[in-house]
Write a structure and sequence with these properties.
The complex is a heterodimer of chains A (867) and B (412). With 867 residues, chain A is α+β, with helices and mostly antiparallel strands. Chain A folds into 5 domains: 4-89, Uridine Diphospho-n-acetylenolpyruvylglucosamine Reductase, domain 2; 96-213, Uridine Diphospho-n-acetylenolpyruvylglucosamine Reductase, domain 3 (2-Layer Sandwich); 335-455 and 463-473, Alpha-Beta Plaits, CATH 3.30.70; 479-648, 2-Layer Sandwich (Uridine Diphospho-n-acetylenolpyruvylglucosamine Reductase, domain 3); 652-821, Vanillyl-alcohol Oxidase, Chain A, domain 3 (3-Layer(aba) Sandwich), CATH 3.40.462. Chain A is 32% helix and 22% strand. Chain A has 30 helices and 35 strands. In chain A, strand 21 and strand 22 form a beta hairpin. Chain B has 412 residues and is an alpha/beta fold. Chain B folds into 4 domains: 3-95, Fumarate Reductase Iron-sulfur Protein, Chain B, domain 2; 99-152, no CATH class; 162-292, Up-down Bundle (Glutathione S-transferase Yfyf (Class Pi), Chain A, domain 2); 298-411, 3-Layer(aba) Sandwich (Rossmann fold). Helices cover 52% and strands 8% of the residues of chain B. Chain B contains 25 helices and 9 strands. In chain B, helix 16 (228-243) packs across helix 18 and helix 23 crosses helix 24. The chains are: A alpha+beta (867), B alpha/beta (412). The interface between A and B is large, with 41 and 30 residues.
């Protein structure tokens, strides 16, 4: 029952029409796309952010549990209320607020569906990469809540790689903006923590997404097989050949027939399996990739490779794939869908086990899945009207999850934990891991009214399957060292001794001055490659391993870690790179370290070893601790090991550059980056001895593609009246900017500025007004500026901070004299979200022993800069 | 038939939600009670005993446009519109029919003469501003509380019904092939008479003879409302009129009527002798666009230099699968530029008398249609259903657009 007073208050906030407490409404909001049910006591439909914040605050103050909901199509029970409460339906927040091609971003309300956004972007020549199969009806708020994937995420990544800003309401009613078009905001990555938190931490009221220019060309192939195994092997071989298709989808025969019975999509009814493979990118070289795929599939005994002739045929092929879940509804009233993920080479094994399990429980099933990233979707057919079937189907689902975890996979690749997979969390996370995740709720929702009873199982109860759990596996070469370091932290915790994690040492002077004396905690011992799996393209190494050593280990497999972090590049340790989120201008093509991370292990402020993430590319089990810890600069814990994905080495790396005035550089860079040319970076640096900049545009990939890209970029330069056009090759591991990085790093003050990409030029102009810049790199792709100067006074620093904020950007001093730091916050003027960051730190590091004082806000020292 | 008999069909909804994207009502409200998934969930709850037949479920049942777009987006193709009308029928049995509906379906629609009289009375009221008289007559009021605003939808009612000017009977034709019967829908009869005249002229030009029928309402409004006995009665009376016709085709210029006549057989059980008649009538029923596409090559220059677009009536596109026929005709119009209307097959919100009972929802649906219409920059909007013409014309006036809304037969 919802208290009458609350109902009355809600009516005052949103209007009588938008509150419903009838039995009909309870029934209508008692389900979602999963099998879970739970009826709310009332449903409220706020119209906008303000109403949402007032509704949230009112419910929290009344102590009434509530769950946010979009269109209710999620597949794990995250939006139903098993113990009653209030449904906060955000369906009315359904407007696209703005599309900004120049900064390559768009701002939407949470009730906009994924497809509506795609349809709005398409005429402008852009797209939003995540494309869940349910994109017609899945809202972007829901995509954020579940960290949705989709077919295309094989190439582009999932929601967390493309949502760059959130506006959220906390249960206090407080409204916060986390990130935005400025892609790398200061401090902890709270966006990442919220994405995939299934509406248990905050209510999202606005989403800023990264949008990308549509590829120049797309080629779609339908490959037909007589045996499922052959299809699965083709998948592994294609990736191993260094081709990164945009999508690599598979369907087996029951699904093929069900789909064909619904709509004629052109899948052969007698096939054992089909793959839908799509490659996209610059037109040159694409035919060759498609040809190579054809060869690989033929070598794996495919029956036929059919190229989609045009947009219409392509549309039909996809319509079938996207409708596969609905299509099986023809075969039986209900299905249970499991979205386990396994390393892709183990797909054939996983499929055999799934078939055996389903058969043993007396059900039929079909498989449709994202084969490229090993994300299974067995659909087990049953009738929920039969209680016995309902019980058995859940048991079968449980066994499938166990089997996939045993293969090194995880329990959910994209659908989320919700209610349905709560118990299975203990297969992949230890009690300490789960408790660490759950404890973060305290920082966001101390009263625990927001979607309670989801995601996290009761760890005080016995767990019968401990032997099969991933976290209980025997240790490796690193484990003993990790234990020892955890012990050290425990001692420090007991003794209240502050620690400063140190890898290669490049981080030693980062952030604000320590608020009390610290003892260095070195990661040198955490060295060495623990697991290197070239076929599945990931590795696990100790945090102390240098990038040079990692690249060397990957080289024999023709792979690399696509990171060239500024300042130090190969000398840096992987732990340090992860902790600082260090990156270079090639970020727009390969991503920041957070994009490459699959999982990590860290020691928290109490000395507990905590696991985060895993080793499969799609993983939405639990909160995204991985990305919260990454970028926390050693202030939330000590990273002991990381698991990252690797890439096939590009055949050729070349940069074409030319000189122009700064404004022309900004304008041409914007044109290039908004086009489908496929540049890996576009950055400029002053050309020595003139007031011009040299704009440098990089291309990496297959040789013939790069050659064509270079030619087209050169033509663009010449057409735009740039001078001294030249093209050069560069080393894939070190990139073209090492010398410049060293010059910047050699200055007493090193600044890093970030802004929405279309404002990079204005940010640079502000800097020029305030300081005499000695070395400068302007990265138009990420909206990032690195600059070195020998002189910076307090007033200038303040001015830069304020002006950058006005641009919706930020400035931070990566390096500055200690004397300067005694008077200034190196992160600039205080921001409201920093309070929340400090609450998060206080949970994971209650005695503030890790790098105290380093983080933005200086708040822990009661400094004047406290927000 | 009780809704429980459809338990299996209803249970096939696995909540995938794909109906949401296609439902004009859900797209306007975002409310789960206004979409197939929600309606099916409620019906399942009623069958399983969690909910009772009560006025609480009236709105979800009656806010459905019956446009059928959900079924087109439903992989198990659950016929939600049919299930909703079945449920409405059971609802009326269990909760009761309103007296005003009894007046309409039992006393007025079965009798064309009475309908004409009523329409004339309203027309006098409407055209002379004496709308009190119209209200007193109650024809429009039956549809519910939103009447006073909805009244403006029909701009002007002609003083004489179509069949008062063209008396039922046989008209000579100039064509060579077929003898046809012209089934005059209520919309054409009392409102969209220009369409009726154009249809009759076309039929006379291209057929050997045209029999203007003395039919009554096709029964669709009663069926939509859930009053199956009334629908059966109306259809039965029409069958008696149609049965005696020895014509090659029964042509209607109201896609809703044609769609429903083609459905007549399902109104009667297997052992009902009327079913056989219904089957033979349904086989001869032709939407005017269907008939014209087979018989006519347009030569009229009425659209010369104009940009023209087409709105698909629900009962044409989903009810009868007519997509290509009207477009082919328009493509062949001399000097006209055809542009496709975005979301052309989305309901306009007219949905028979829907706008009269759910004015706000109907207007939201209509506004979406008008926004799409603006994108085309069309001068002429063509369709094949009088109810759509009334609603679309209202939309054009409401949005201050300079678009001519015409029946297909008026421009060919």
């Amino acid at each position: 029952m919802i208290p009458k007073e609350l109902i009355n208050e809600l009516r005052r906030i949103v209007g009588d029409r938008h509150v419903s407490e009838t039995r009909t409404a309870a029934e209508l909001y008692s389900y979602d796309g999963s099998l879970a049910t739970g009826a709310p006591g009332a449903v409220v439909f706020p119209a906008d952010t303000l109403e949402t914040s007032r509704v949230v605050k009112a419910a929290a103050r009344a102590g009434v549990a509530f769950a946010p909901r979009g269109f209710g199509t999620n597949l794990s029970g995250g939006t139903v209320l098993p113990y009653g409460g209030l449904t906060v339906c955000l369906a009315r927040l359904n407007r696209i607020l703005g599309i900004f091609p120049a900064s390559r971003s768009a701002v939407v309300q949470p009730g906009v569906t994924n497809l509506e956004l795609q349809n709005a972007l398409s005429p402008l020549g852009f797209f939003y990469a995540p494309d869940p199969a349910s994109q017609k009806v899945a809202t972007l708020g829901g995509n954020v809540g579940e960290n949705s994937g989709g077919p295309r995420c094989l190439k582009y990544g999932v929601t967390t790689n493309h949502v760059i800003g959130l506006e959220v309401v906390l249960t206090s009613g407080e409204l916060l903006r986390l990130g935005g078009a400025d892609v790398d905001p200061l401090g902890y990555d709270l966006r990442a923590l919220l994405i995939g938190s299934e509406g248990t931490l905050a209510v999202v009221t606005e989403v800023t997404v990264r949008i990308m220019p549509k590829p120049e060309k797309v080629m779609t192939q339908l490959v037909v097989y007589n045996a499922v195994d052959d299809a699965a092997r083709s998948v592994a071989d294609i990736i191993a050949a260094g081709i990164v298709p945009a999508t690599l989808e598979m369907m087996d025969s029951p699904i093929i027939r069900a789909v064909e019975d619904s709509i004629a999509c052109g899948y052969p009814r007698d096939a054992a399996a089909v793959l839908i493979i799509e490659v996209e990118g610059p037109a040159e070289g694409l035919e060759k990739q498609a040809g190579r795929i054809r060869e690989i599939c033929t070598a794996n005994r495919c029956r036929e490779v059919r190229d989609a002739a045009g947009a219409e045929e392509r549309g039909r092929l996809w319509e079938g794939r996207r409708g596969a879940f609905g299509a099986v509804a023809r075969l039986a009233p209900n299905y249970l869908v499991n979205d386990c993920t396994v390393p892709r080479t183990l797909l054939p094994n996983a499929l055999v086990q799934v078939a055996e399990i389903v058969k043993r429980y007396g059900f039929e099933h079909g498989n449709v899945f994202h084969a490229g990233d090993g994300n299974l979707h067995p659909l087990i057919l049953f009738d929920s009207r039969d209680p016995d079937q309902l019980k058995r189907v859940h048991e079968a689902g449980w066994e499938i999850m166990q089997a996939c975890v045993a293969l090194g996979g995880t329990i959910s690749g994209e659908h989320g934990i919700g209610l349905e997979k709560m118990a299975a969390m203990r297969m992949v996370f230890s009690d300490a891991d789960i408790d660490a995740q759950r404890s973060l709720q305290e920082a966001f929702d101390p009263a625990r009214v927001l979607n309670p009873g989801k995601m996290f199982p009761d760890t005080t109860r016995p767990f019968a399957f401990k032997d099969q759990a991933a976290w209980a596996r025997p240790g490796d070469a690193l484990s003993a060292i990790e234990e020892r370091m955890a012990e050290e932290v425990k001692h420090a915790f007991a003794a209240d001794q502050a620690l400063l994690p140190l890898g290669g040492g490049s981080l030693a002077g980062a952030g604000n001055l320590p608020s009390r004396p610290t003892t260095p905690l070195r990661t040198n011992a955490l060295d060495g490659m623990i697991e290197l799996d070239p076929a599945n393209q990931y590795f696990t190494s100790g945090a102390g391993m240098t990038l040079a050593a990692i690249q060397e280990a990957l080289a024999p497999h023709n792979q690399w870690l696509p990171l060239r972090p500024a300042f130090g590049v190969l000398r840096r340790t992987i732990g340090g790179v992860t902790a600082t989120g260090a990156l270079g201008p090639e970020r727009i093509a390969y991503g920041a370290p957070r994009e490459l991370l699959l999982g990590l292990r860290f020691v928290d402020g109490r000395g507990r070893l905590i696991n985060a993430g895993g080793k499969v590319v799609k993983n939405v089990a639990g909160y995204d601790m991985t990305r919260l810890i990454a970028g926390s600069a050693g202030s939330l814990g000590l990273i002991t090991r990381v698991t990252m994905k690797t890439a096939t080495r590009p055949e050729r790396c070349a940069v074409v550059s030319a000189c122009g005035i700064p404004e022309a550089c900004a304008s041409l860079a914007a044109q290039l980056l908004g086009s489908s040319l496929g540049a890996v970076f576009a950055a400029a640096a002053p050309d020595d001895g003139s007031n011009r900049w040299r704009l440098q545009v990089g291309f990496e990939g297959f040789g013939d593609t790069v050659a064509a890209q270079l030619a087209r970029a050169e033509a663009l330069f010449e057409k735009s009246d740039f001078r001294s056009v030249r093209a050069e090759e560069y080393n894939v591991l070190t990139g073209p900017f090492c010398g410049l990085y060293d010059r910047i790093a050699g200055c007493p003050f090193v600044l890093r500025m970030g802004a929405p990409p279309d404002r990079t030029g204005r940010a640079a102009a502000i800097l020029k007004q305030q300081a005499r810049v000695e070395a400068l790199l302007v990265d138009f792709g990420s909206g990032r500026i690195l600059a070195g100067t020998s002189d910076m006074n307090d007033a200038s620093w303040n001015e830069i901070g304020q002006r950058l904020r006005e641009l919706a950007g930020h400035a931070v001093l990566e390096k500055s004299p200690d004397e300067f730091k005694t008077r200034n916050d190196v992160f600039g003027p205080p921001r409201p979200e920093w309070n929340l960051m400090h609450r998060v730190k206080a949970i994971l590091d209650p005695k503030l022993i890790f790098a105290p004082g380093r983080m933005p806000g200086l708040i822990q020292q009661g400094c004047r800069n406290a927000p | 038939m009780s809704i429980s008999a459809h338990y299996d069909e209803i249970a096939h909804c696995n909540h995938c939600g794909f109906c949401q994207t296609a439902c004009p009502i859900f797209r306007s409200t975002g409310y789960e009670g206004g979409v197939a998934r929600g309606r099916l969930a409620l019906l399942r709850a009623v069958i399983e005993g969690r909910l009772q037949w009560s006025p609480e479920i009236e709105e979800p049942l009656y806010s459905c446009l019956l446009c059928g777009a959900c079924t087109s987006n439903c992989f198990p193709a659950i016929p939600t519109a049919d299930l909703v009308t079945t449920a409405r029928s059971e609802y009326l049995e269990k909760v009761g029919r309103k007296s005003i509906h009894r007046l309409l379906f039992d006393k007025l629609l079965p009798y064309p003469r009475r309908l004409h009289l009523a329409a004339r009375a309203i027309a006098m009221g409407k055209n002379s501003g004496m709308s009190e008289l119209a209200r007193a007559l109650g024809l429009l009021r039956i549809f519910g509380r939103d009447l006073s605003r909805a009244e403006a939808i029909v701009e002007r009612l002609p003083a004489q019904a179509f069949r008062e000017r063209f008396k039922p009977g046989v008209f000579e034709g100039q064509g060579r092939s077929q003898h046809v019967a012209y089934f005059v829908g209520c919309g054409v009869d009392v409102v969209s008479q220009a369409a009726g005249e154009a249809t009759l002229a076309l039929l006379r030009r291209f057929s050997r003879s045209v029999h203007v029928l003395n039919n009554n309402c096709c029964g669709l409004p009663a069926w939509s409302y859930g009053d199956l006995p009334a629908a059966r009665k109306l259809a039965g009376k029409n069958l008696a009129v149609l049965e005696v016709q020895s014509v090659d085709a029964i042509v209607t210029d109201c896609s809703s009527c044609t769609g429903f006549i083609k459905k007549y057989p399902r109104l009667f059980s297997e052992d009902d002798p009327q079913r056989k008649v219904a089957l033979s009538i349904a086989a001869k029923a032709r939407d005017v666009s269907e008939w014209l596409a087979a018989e006519v090559i347009p030569i009229s220059k009425s659209l010369e230099g104009k940009r023209v677009t087409f709105h698909d009536p629900c009962h044409a596109v989903r009810g009868q699968g007519l997509v290509k026929q009207p477009r082919e005709l328009l493509h062949r119009m001399p000097g006209a530029e055809f542009v496709e209307l975005p979301e052309a097959d989305w309901c306009c919100g007219g949905a028979g008398s829907y706008a009269l009972s759910h004015y706000d929802l109907a207007m939201q649906v209509l506004d979406r249609k008008m926004a799409n219409l603006k994108k085309t920059g069309a001068d002429v909007l063509v369709t094949t259903c009088p109810a759509c013409i009334i609603q679309l014309s209202y939309g054009v006036r409401r949005h201050g657009l300079k678009v001519d809304v015409r029946h297909l037969t008026e421009v060919i």
